[in-house]
Design brief:
Number of helices: 24
Keywords: Antiport, Cell membrane, Glycoprotein, Membrane, Mitochondrion, Mitochondrion outer membrane, Phosphoprotein, Transmembrane, Transmembrane helix, Transport
Helix content: 55-70%
Largest sheet: 4 strands, mixed
Number of strands: 11
GO cellular component, one term: plasma membrane
Structural class: alpha+beta
Strand order of the largest sheet: 2-1-4-3
Subcellular location: Cell membrane; Mitochondrion outer membrane
Protein name: Choline transporter-like protein
Distance between the termini: 6 Å
Organism: Cyprinus carpio (Common carp)
Strand content: 5-15%
Shape: globular
Length: about 725
Amino acid sequence: MHNFNVFTGEPRKFDPTFKGPIYNRGCTDILCCILFILALLGYFAVGILAWSQGDPRKVIYPTDSKGQFCGQVGSPLEKKPLLFYFNILKCASPLVLLEFQCPTTQICVERCPNKFMTLVKALLKEDDREYYKQFCKEGVDMTKVSSGQERKITRRCLPALETLKGGVVVVGNKTTFRDDYAEKNINATDLLEASKKSNVVVEARAVAMRIFEDYTQSWHWILLGLVIAMLVSLIFILLLRCLAGVMVWVMIIMVVIVIGYGIFHCYMQYASLKGQAGSDVTIKDLGLQTDFSVYLQIRQTWLAFMIILCIVEVVIILLLIFLRKRLLIAIALIKEASKAIGHVMSSLFYPLLTFALLSLVIAYWAITAVFLSTSSDPVYKVFNTTECMYSRDTCEPETFNSSNITAECPDAECLFAFYGGETLYHKYLILFQFYNVFLFFWCANFVTALGQVTLAGAFASYYWAFKKPEDIPAFPVFNSLGRALRYHTGSLAFGSLILAIVQIIRVLLEYLDQKLKGAQNKCAKFLLSCLKCCFWCLEKFIKFLNRNAYIMVAIYGKNFCTSAKDAFFLLMRNIVRVAVLDKVTDFLLFLGKLLIVGIVGICSFFFFTGKIKIVEDATPTLNYYWVPILTVVFGAYLIAHGFFSVYAMCVDTLFLCFCEDLERNDGSSDKPFFMSPELHQILSIEKNNAKRFCSIAKFTATTKNTSVYSDTSQDQTMSFCKNLCKCI
């Protein structure tokens, strides 16, 4: 049964003494392990360097161009808590989002301007001249710089813009104003765009403070919701172990009912808003709103929800209809996975370790990114109107007046130029940011790979135990984790590196896409879209291949490339089973996650919106009720995914072991199967299907209509059928 390759007919060699995961194994992919360790050391060095140079307070608190915090207690700026932008138009630069700073001079002021007037006009009156002195740098005379009526927004002075009917933007009741310094007219719309860019971080901070306030009011209810999600997931897993067949059908029916109820609820909301004032406004006209409850007051939102749920419902029903015969086979595979998890219960808690490690990686990346982004310093250069040998040289404002530059160039000034720095560190700052992102992908993929190979080794130990549970080794999860770290760190780093390279390329493509949004070159846009699609598909394929390669690493202990090749060809030899059994099982597990998230999400929605009369008084008062709801839903999904990811890894491992078992053994007394009787039923069904296919192929190849098939095609078909029948 097992001694021939289906495609070539050549004999295949196996180790007759193979009894499961090999314990006498050696280290694999050592060079990649060394490279990964060196990369981690470099990552730590970048983090230390960033922490020594950056200051995350720049993200939260306003700082002037000298790096001083406005309103800081005990400093000369204690009574100047607000930040004034010298030229707000420069805040429209994309550098604002990267560096958290506008590339213009900024000074701390006691209060924002409340008059709309240029300083050129202010020079005409003594009172105005004295008033505007507070918005100039110390020691500098009044210059021809434009200023306007402004308002303070989270301790920053921004133009007091208004939008009239028809969408006309005005400042100080004017659509344009004269910039006497640049000798040109400026539209109020330009000020609006600049204010938006400069206020991105500010608005995000304001929303974050309201969200934080909601968390302080509802954190205990959120924890209760997550505990309920964990209990529901655990009960579901335990029931799935005991009543896999019944639970799968109950799960399918419940998912259909929950989605159906969602469709009904959306329709009722859609119908109830008919005729109400403002309910016919479109989402596009409404624009982006921080209060998401506004969207629930328009009919188009509920119509969109209803259409999406209807599509999901139809897709699920159609899949169930066409795959109804395959569900029984998938249920048998889930039953076997339930038995495996029952004997390796510690596997259910391993996702906690993966979650903790991923949280550590994400936290390190985020903190390093913030420190890198806030490590830029203000750079001052010499500006002058006449010829000067020091023109555009770097200078220090504190010592400029006492230097020899003012003696040789009397009209020279030391003015703010940009944020950055001219040291070696600042020169390669963008490379440090890139390295931070790349190592984040590499480390995150490594943590995921470690979890996959650990669980694969544990479940492979279960499958290849001839007498279950007597032959299952003690502490299979911890033993598998120890083997992975001791012998296969290099293989895990190798697979993670390949995936990280593809992911960083996708990030670069997204960056280019943002840059080319305003371009008119349709050919470049089309090419970029094709590249994004191709690399998305490549990332999905590599994830699939890596997952199965790690299973082979856990079983055989070979290096990554050999394991990936063996896994790929093993799957290709069982491509029908992969498409039918493995993917149908994944679909059923996805429905399980969807059911748990749906139940917890609906309950949290009714609770936080005060629609449960029994506990209505306990409902907290919130700014955004969607904050705790989304938190509970997202947390419930992570919890359910953690439990079901163990199931998915168990199914994938048992499936590969099942395919290996079919090729190694024939069920005889000399070569008995390691699979259970339930999995043997799957073999019988697949064997009958293969025999029917073989009979049809033989009949087709020997048909009397020889004009359709050549002699060569007949020989190839007969050879394929002969080898296939040997395998079954």
